[in-house]
Amino acid sequence: MPVAKPESSDARVIAHVDMDCFYVQVEQRKQPNLRGLPTAVVQYNEWKGGGLIAVSYEARNYGVKRSMRGEEAKQVCPQIQLVQVPVARGKADLNTYRNAGSEVVSILARKVRCERASIDEVYLDLTDAAEKMLAEAPPENLQLVDEETLKSHVLGLNDEKGIDAKENVREWLCKKDADRRDKLLACGSLIVAELRMQVLKETEFTCSAGIAHNKILAKLASAMNKPAQQTVVPFSSVKGLLDSLPIKKMKQLGGKLGSSLQSDLGVSTVGDLLQFSEEKLQERYGSNTGTWLWNIARGISGEEVQGRLLPKSHGSGKTFPGPRALKTIASVQHWLNELCEELSERIRSDLDQNKRIARTLTLHASAYKSGDTDSQKNFPSKSCHLRYGTAKMQEDAFNLFQAGLREFKPQGSQNSGWRITGLSVSASKIVEIPSGTSSIMKYFHGQNPSASLSKQSQDDDIQEPSVSESCSEMNLTEQEMKFPGEDSNTKCVMPCLDQQEHKQDLQKDQVMISLHNLVIFNLHVFQISFCSALQNPSCLLPSKGQDDFQEASLRNSGTECCSGIRNQSQQQRVFPPQQFAVSSSNRTDAKRKTSKDKGTHSILRFFKKTDPPSSLSLIKEEHGDNLQDVEALSPTASARENARHVEEGRESIAACSYKVDEIDPSVIEELPPEIQEEFRAWLRPRKRPDIVRRGSSIANYFAPTKRT
Ligand code: TTP
User: Fold this and answer.
1) DSSP helix, strand, coil percent of the chain (3-state; round to 5)
2) pLDDT mean across residues, the chain
3) Distance, CA 419 to ligand 1 centroid (Å)?
4) At what angle do helices 127-136 and 180-203 cross, to 10 degrees?
5) Structural element, H or E, at residue 497
6) Which atom of ligand 1 is nearest to the CA of 94?
7) Contact present, 357 and 513 (Cβ < 8 Å)
8) What is the whole-number distance in angstroms between the Cα of residue 696 and the centre of ligand 1?
9) CA-nearest residue, atom 25 of ligand 1
């Protein structure tokens, strides 16, 4: 649902930058001999030459369209160059394109607030930069305006034949008595032209842009003149633009809401909405959407450019068209495993590189039923709390699929079978790990961190993994939940967990997340020691490489977890066998090293500040029989044991590999001085590789016609 936000000012300067035929440009950079030739990137699936996903402007001139397959494209343009999308795990691998998009974002974000909107689109808030330019070096004082800015399209500017378009633009840019809003847009045009040139110089990619007073208008404008051009929407042209704009072309109106406006209100253009009062629209569509519609008819939108350079979610999907449709549970599971493996790698790398964690795992599928009259029914999307680790994600995604399938094709239904034509898994609700370790410190010192964490907990509606412990037959309660920006068709599968307990888990999660921020390396023993101190071993985020180990442990020890329906309390309390196995095995390893004491006294003192009895009782309560060896210890013995593991863990830390670059120095500074010293001793400095800068071999053109 669109959200109505009042416009903070109608004099903001917002740009939307959209790369031109992006995948094609990425491939052309890889193979420069393709530059200037009609080229298209085709999907992995080779059926009929593969589906086109990106088409160069040279190929578009021949009538090649994205909806075509390679064979058809060759008919309309025999010389077309078809490049297959890179492949990994039997599906398209988009990493090259994602990375290329990141290159562009990093250039655009150097000077202005930047929001990455998709793999190849970015919003920029140029208000401050434009105001500064207007105050210090207004366009009206310019002796020379650069060519790229002069090529701008200014909506509403007279561009009749015979009039020198560039001269016209120059006059508009430099008009002394122009409206202040127009002057700001003129500044924005100069800034965007320069940024686009910079992107070209550094990446060899061309892009187009829209410059307007808000995001919606800027996005509309960027698509108006492509490739490699920019379009400005002065305030005075907004009405003219929207009057003739088909309702479905407006952002957020391409779907059901737009259809309802067409069928129920008889609206065909955005301008047609002007005839309805705000009250009338609110009456029909609710107060928020009604106000949003009323605003949008007038080109008003207060949506801000979020300072976000990273994607909002990660997804991995594959389609299975025609005869490739999946018909068996085994084939679905195979593909879900592949998709989850990719997704898991991506969220892991997001965690490592950007210190962000994803909270929600969602499964989408498209399907049809053979021999069923009700074949229109959609396969319901399902979500659950995201658990890190490839095997866990695979397990959860599979269980989400089965939950969806039960709804799509209820048990005992007569139709002969289902066919899956598309599968995707996505990780969303991505949040940054809180920087600093104050929550950990508070926790260690017996203070309740909930004050700082409660908002997060309250905001989080998602329960613990609904499908944990691999019980595919588990009886789930399901509850419809909607998340902003997510498919309204998505449901969140939720178990009957106690809300309060879940909140506590989330708090502990947060503590562990801070811990992860503190030291990101593969350190099982160290983690277990920390976990004991934190009173909840199961809250650990697994480290890279830990999954395999965990999976092996699971196979060795955890047969019962798949053995059918578990009662609710067991589900809630179960101690993940893999964690325990890690603990035991590392403990054995560590015992061999007990004799070596290399002076870890301050760390020992630090950990001894935790409360051993409560630690023990909570572990016992949570993990029951699985912790028999711990249970046998007296509280004091437990504390000693705890400390000993830390000490032994310290040995492992020293021997372990770690990534110095990924340790946030500010986090270390929050530790007590004696701990800081020890950490620093571990963190031996390593040399950073020299950054190789790309040289630009092309640069003196934007217009494709200049290519030879
Ligand atoms: P778009 O920005 O929609 O298109 P484009 O960059 O290819 O061309 P244009 O100049 O018209 O903006 O999509 C960006 C990339 O996303 C595109 O190069 C390929 C990929 N893509 C798909 O893989 N499938 C799709 O259905 C679409 C629309 C895009």
Assistant:
1) 50, 15, 35
2) 70
3) 28
4) 110
5) none
6) 23
7) yes
8) 24
9) 53
- Residues composing the chain: 708
| Residue at token pair 């899956």 | 420
441 in contact with ligand 1, CB cutoff 6 A: no
Atom of ligand 1 nearest to the CA of 227: 10
DSSP code string of 408-434: HS-TT--S-EEEEEEEEEEEEEEEEPP
Q: Which residues of 247-270 are buried (b: 16+ CB within 10 A; e: fewer)?
A: bbebeebeeebbeebbeebebebb
Answer yes or no: 342 catalytic.
no
Residue 489, classed as helix, strand or coil, is coil
16 within ligand 1 shell (Cβ under 6 A): no
Task: State the distance from the centre of ligand 1 to the C-alpha of 24, rounded, in angstroms.
Answer: 9
Taking CA 531 as the corner, what is the angle to CA 526 and CA 536, rounded to the nearest 5 degrees? 160
The pLDDT of residue 373: 55
DSSP-H helix ranges across 355-431: 390-408
Q: How far does residue 15's CA lie from ligand 1's centre (Å)?
A: 19
* Type of residue at 650: R
CA–CA distance, 207 with 118 (Å, rounded to integer) = 14
For 146-233, strand residue ranges (E) read 153-154, 207-212, 230-232
pLDDT tens track for 638-680? 444 444 443 333 333 332 333 444 444 544 454 545 455 555 5
Q: What is the DSSP string of 122-163?
A: EEEE-HHHHHHHHHHS-GGG-S---HHHHT-EETTS---TTS
Give tens-digit pLDDT for 188-246. Answer: 999 999 999 999 999 999 999 999 999 999 999 999 999 999 999 999 999 999 999 99
CB of 21 within 6 A of ligand 1: the answer is yes
The answer to whether 50 touches 70, Cβ cutoff 8 Å, is: yes
Please report, rounded to a whole number, the percentage of residues in the chain having pLDDT higher than 90: 49
Closest ligand 1 atom number to CA of residue 208: 10
Domains observed in the chain: 22-92 (3.40.1170.60), 314-545 (3.30.1490.100)
Sort residue 162 into left (φ over 0), alpha (ψ -120 to 50) or beta: left
The answer to whether residues 85 and 23 touch, using CB atoms and an 8 Å cutoff, is yes
Annotated active-site residue in 58, 115, 121, 341: 121
- CB of residue 22 inside a 6 A radius of ligand 1: yes
Does ligand 1 have an atom closer than 6 angstroms to the CB of 115? no
Q: How many CB atoms lie within 10 A of CB 271?
A: 18
pLDDT above 70 covers a percentage of the chain that reads: 58
